[in-house]
Write a structure and sequence with these properties.
Layout lengths: L3 H25 L3 H24 L6 H25 L8 H22 L9 H5 L8 H21 L10 H15 L13 E3 L5 H5 L3 E4 L4 E4 L8 H12 L5 H12 L5 H20 L3 H9 L3 H17 L3 H15 L12 H12 L3
Parallel strand pairs: 1-3
Antiparallel strand pairs: 2-3
Helix pairs in contact: 1-4, 6-11, 6-12, 7-9, 9-10, 9-11, 10-15, 11-12
Amino acid sequence: MKTNKDNRILTIISAVCILVFIVLIKIVTFYPEWIEKNYSRGLYPNISWFYRKLFGWIPFSLGDLLYISAGIYLFVKVLKFVNLLIRRKTREVNYKKGLLKAFFILSGIYIYFNLSWGLNYNRPGIAYQLQLNPAMQNDEDLKLITGILVKKVNENRLLLGRGKINYESTDTVFNEAKKAYQAAASGFPFLEYKAESIKKSMYGRLGNFLGFLGYYNPFTGEAQLNLTQPRFLIPYVTCHEMAHQVGYASESEANFVGYLAAMGSKEVLFHYSTYFDLFNYANHELALRDSVAAKINYNNLDTLVKTDVAEVREYWRKSNNVIEPIIKVFYDRYLKANQQSAGMKSYSQVVGWLIGYYKKYGKI
């Protein structure tokens, strides 16, 4: 029978082992090329495939249930503690035991997160694979790339017809996104995608108030889409979330990889969805430097594209609330803590990738 002394020794040994493991993970992050070769292109593809194979067939998001359960657990714990405060019985709380439990839970989450996906934040990624560096965004480059994107977005919107867009079912879009990755993998083998796991978010319109269109769950390998967004955005957002699944953690790289994948699709809607989003990112960057040039770009958009721009603006206007800015602050800090110094602005850094890609390959 174990004594209290034996339990204490076991707890200390366990805590030390966990701390050593955390330190090892931290040390590994200083060797991005090692991570690229041995984790991102070695171990991780197998982990990712396993998660998608294990959970992909389930018709609902297991990851969403996991988050809901965690939220309920924390809510109940906080209520119990508040109740003790009200009753002035905080002396009954075993703070040492509580802190120790929190240490093991948070450490376990940290280790699991990094081994299941998080180490990808520290890989050289697409820059290493394409020998491509994001270009500095000077005014001339921005004017050039936005001018090209205006033409692309107009051309593809007209190819979809002069009236309202005829949308396929969401499942069809998800399946086409998988085909797009498979086609893109013929030119970029690192985009190989097997075992689909793309699902509708269970949060519905709540996602609007939290400010997300899609998200990736690193604990279950599922990609979730907020289907309340304008439907012409869904193809590119899907490709973006799938980029996270294949190992591109940074938001700028996921945006760029989503672009590479979407270009592999034969569906015009995928091209329009992608060029539409990229134009908005690029023109926003241009507006910060030359608002007149950005306004000219907007005026050069086809009337149908302007209608879609208005729909997106209205979508976000209706979603405005006091909670979203708070969520964005936390997410901004999360990104900065994971090698994305620009935080929420990381998404728009895809413009630099586009400029670099255009300069190297002469096309976008």
